[in-house]
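Q&A log
Question type: sequence-to-structure
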Amino acid sequence: AGFDGGKRRLITGGSDGRLLMWNFSNGNKLKELTSPTDDEVTAVVHTGGSNQKRIVGVGWNHLVTFWDDDADGRKKAPCSRQLHGHAADVLCIAQSPPSILATGDFDGVVIVWNVESGAVRHKLVPPPLRPESEINGGADTTTTSAYAPMTDRAAEGLCFVSLGPEERVAA
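Response status: OK
Response body:
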């Protein structure tokens, strides 16, 4: 779940692939944002400045999905764009205004995107898991398990941090 820029509307993601926009003051449902898939939405963020506002959702469909946040009065709105790049469930998202997003997936991959063009700016891939025989100093073992289960690699949270007065950011 996440708030819009004015903190007046709450946007929630559901296990059915839909996002719902709520009036935070009175609890009324304002809009339903639909997706081509019914995979669970795991994280949402509201992006954009005064010109182009967007709602971005990520989830089990491995995609970064955009909806335009316009005041057209429609009760249902389809997605406007989807970005492909993850090979696993996308678990988290962070933004650095005005045009940078970072998304992280179950395999530990973090992708930094340009929101305007949809281009991948950076793709951060964790190192491969080592076989247990390498960890035990070459000792012969009967198992082939890795030193860390895949769930220990998942990118479960992201944030951008300002590095000083020049407004540089790091993911």
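Response note: The radius of gyration is 19 Å.
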